[in-house]
Each structure stands twice: as structure tokens, then as C-alpha cells.
Amino acid sequence: MKLNTAMTVNRISDEVWEIPVTEKPGMVVPARIYATEQILTSMDSGVFEQVTNVACLPGIRRYALCMPDGHWGYGFPIGGVAAFDPHEGVISPGGVGYDINCGMRLIRTDLTLEDVRPRLEPLMTELFRKVPAGVGSTGFVRVNRQEFEEVMRKGARWCVARGYGWQQDLERIEEQGCIPGADPSKISDQAVKRGINQLGTLGSGNHYLEVQVAAQERIFDRETAAKLGVTGHDQIVVMVHCGSRGFGHQVASDYLKVFEKAMPRYGISVKDQQLACAPFRSPEGQDYFAAMNCAANSAFANRQVITHQIREAFSSVFGRPAEAMGMEIVYDVAHNIAKVERYEEGELVVHRKGSTRAFGPNRPELPDRYKETGQPVICGGSMETGSYLLVGTDRAMHETFGSTMHGSGRTMSRAQAKRSIRGEQLKKDMAQRGIIVKAVSMSGLAEEAGFAYKNISDVVETVDRAGITRKVAELRPIGNIKG
Amino acid sequence: MAPFRFLEEVALADAAFEATGDTPSDLFQAAAQAVIETLVNPATLLPTCRKTIEHRAPDLPALLFDWLSDIVYLKDAEGLLFKDTTVVVQCDRSDGSWTLHATLAGEPIDPARHELRADVKAVTKHLFDVRQDGRRWVARVVLDI
Asked: At the top level of CATH, which class does the domain B4-144 belong to?
């Protein structure tokens, strides 16, 4: 087996690989990678280097983990998971990412492909008009500084109170769309100015809004799917992938600087500047945690305002209220975040960076409707292939701090993707395959071509076989909006 | 056009570039142009508004980091994209710190007229490097997309 590393990588099982602590000076715990042999051999060298750098951080517990969609990131690899003791361990913006609470939301409908296909073009046009995307886009919600601070504190709850959503939406969002402990006094003016006009916007890069089909033959567990509101029969669903926009990016940048300066004071040295961190209980660590929670709440609010706009768009195109089309949220999950969660060891500060929380059945954090099924997990593929709905398992609670994959993971550079196809051609090709694309940037569209990503089905099979998530349904795109 | 080139193999999901200049001022101008060209095709912009920026930093890398971060910040905070920049970077011999005085010319974002590219989230410290190579100044920068 030829890997992109000289390190020793031991096989634990067909889907789990371990790099022992002897492979790098300073490793506190082993590193574990979830992958098939085929996926492991395709992983870039950054994954091995970075997951073992994470394994060196103070107070890390059990393992530094990487999921099968892992690839090189800043500090942590994308797909990275690490849990730290809250008293002896650290918190690191490099373990959360610049796009704090980037995440996925899935909205179901009672509509079928037969209902939507004849109206798909006007639907995508209306969605493109109502959900701004692309460089520097601004949303329709105008808030002053005081109101924006309320958004930071209350997240999706602020939106629902303002009429941008339904009361029952909240229980279907991780943390009910509002993480406690957000403190706007820990936010810079720059972060406020970058984010205050961006509520309800998608951004660009790999962010998107997608209209998808759940076909009966692509549902793997009908009973669970039905409990999640996905009944198949060419049912239309809508998926949203975006985060905290410029606000979260600035919070991350601000605190990387703070931590760089603070590390010598705490006697911490890291193997990569992007792993800058501070003790979780230190003033700097607590300030970042409070600021990160502000950004996380603003991301929940962002996806909530977008949900409101999606319902409005469907309502105007199909001439019926969204309630009459059953447009309930299935779930909303964060895949760039740090949270305090309880495990066998007690409370731990769990970092997930390009990794999704995947709590198994009966966790107290889950709403009653999902106590039996386990937490819905939403994983987005490339815009040309498909996405998946999965559920969390008990095994994830014991092995991966209740965490799993988040998407398919890039394998080709943006420049190479652009050289391989032009955005206009890709749009035409996708239209021929029945997928309507509305994009602000044609070069941005080319960068997101399906061939630039791993095959998401291989990644999903890995986490399913490893038992850390169970696949429920595959969702195929018919319309996509990109920045 | 100020010299820079994008580096493909450095950041798979993002954008990396190397900028060069005969002087620190040239280098800063080249690096700014690389950030601008990541965001937008500058040929589609008009220089209808101007911004002036001044910075002081203890060293040249810190000054470059702040300068490029400003371009990202102004894109979100003021909705401005820039066509070109004029930069003067100087060393303050009294304490060894570096100062920047820059003028940026551009206009408010208009998706109908501007050929927008990728939205930059942040200038990162990953492999961030500023060095003098013989008579040339060279910087390597990775942008999070």
C-alpha cells in the first residue's frame, strides 16, 4: 500500500487506521483515520502531517481523528475531530475553521419531481433572486448593531421571533439554533462591520443551495427515512450549505492573532502557526469560545433567514403557502465548531472541522422526534453527483466523540478544475442531465465541478461500514444555486 | 501589471500565490493585485472611488498580512472591490518598524457588471513568507476561499 506519508500507519480494521505516538515527537495520543484502503492511499500528505500535529496539542484525549473526506486544511485537516480536557486542554480556531458553524440544512416538501419539473426554471430563478450569493453579497434583512448583537445571542430564535421561520423549526436545529454563552462584547468592530449586512446570504466557494430528489430506490432505510420526513416517491427536498460569512471569518482571524501572542505566556508551542491555541479555561480561550458562539449563532440565523426565503420562493412559484407544501426542516447541523459535550471521560471540548456531529439514539441533546432514530446527519456531495442523509449511532459516541464525515472532500485544485472545463460548458452539460444551475461566477462554477471531488458514495460507504453513521437516503440534485 | 503567480499545489481547496517586487512597495502592490484577481476580473471594474489606508507594523510580514487583510475586509464591510492600488512601504529607522501608505481605486460591487470570482474568507498564516531573494522581494500567501 503506497501512502502519501513515510509514517507508520497501522490497520486497526478495514475502515480504521492508526498512526502511533512514536511517529512524531510530541504526540500525546495516537492519530486515527477513518478510511478504506483505497481512500487512505488517495489522501494527501497534509492529512497525515496535520492529524499528527493535532495529536501533539495539550490536553487532547483518546485520539486525534480524521474522517474519510479528510484533506489538507489550516492547522487541523478538513475532516478533523479532536477532544480536549476542559481543565488541561486547549481551544484552537484552527480546529474550527475560518467559516465558523459552516453547516448543512435539509428542508423536506410534499412536492414530487412531477410537480416541480415543469416549474423548475422559474423556481430556480426565484430562489436565485431571493437568496443572494457570490462575492460580497448582502441580504434583505437590515439590522442595526443592537439587533445584530441579539442575532449573536439568540441565533435562529431571533429569526423565528421576527417571523423568519416557524416555532417548530427550532427543535430541528443542532442546539435548537442558539448556543448559550455567546458574548457580543468579545467581538471586534471589524467583525460586526463585515457581517452586519450579510444575513441570509450564501457566499461562494463550495457553498450552495440545492433542489434535490429523494427517489424510492435510493432510500436505504425506509422506516428511518419516514421518521425523518423523507418518504421517497421522487420527493423534492432542499439542501443549504453555508456558514457565518464575513462575520465568522473575521472572528477566526481576530482570535488567531490573540492566540499567537498568548501562547508563549502559557508555554505552548505548536507545530504549525495555524494551530495557534490557548488553554480552554484561560481568559483568551474563554473569550474566543464566547466570540465563536456569537458567530455560530449568526450562522444558524443565516440558514434560518435563507429557509424563510426558500419557503417564500416555493410559495410564490407554486401559489400555495409553504405550510401546505409540508416544508419542514429535517435537520440543521454544524460541521465547523467547538463544543463542550459529555462523554465517558466527563465534559470535553470537542472540535469538529469539516466533521459533523452524529449523536446516536437517546442522547439528551436530541429532540424527542429523533431520540429513537439518532441524530440526522446531512452530508453534501459535489453539485453534479448527490448528497446523503444519514443518522448517528451509539458506536460514534464511543469511537469518534459522536462525529462523522461532512462531505466528499476535494481532490483537484481550483485552478486545475478551471483548466479542465469552462463554467458555461459545465452549466450546459448539467442542463442536459436535467440539473439547472444558477451561478454568480462562471469561474467559481467550474471550480466546483464534480470531478474535482472524491466520490461521496465511497466516503458514505466507509462511515456506514465503520458503523459511526448509518446511511438513510441519497439525494440527487435537479437545481443548484452557487455564488 | 505587477508580477505574481498562483501556486496550484499549495492549497487544494483554496488559492495560493507568490508575488515579487524590486522594492517592498512593489511587492505589496503585486500581492494586492493577486488578492484582487482572486476576487474579481479587475478589467470589469471602474476606478470610481478611492480609499486611503495607513498602517504601521513591527515587521514587514506583519505589515503585508494587515494590508492584504484590509482588501478582504473592505469587500465585506464596505462592499468595495478594487481595480488597482498605489503603495508606499517604508522602514522607520528610529525603531525598525514598517509603515504603509496606500491608495486603492475601485467601485462598489455590482454583480451585473463585474466578473466576480471567488469570495476570499481570510488571508492565512499557512506558509506565509516574506523574504529578500538577492535584489528581489518575494512573498508567498495562501488565501482561504
From this structure: alpha beta
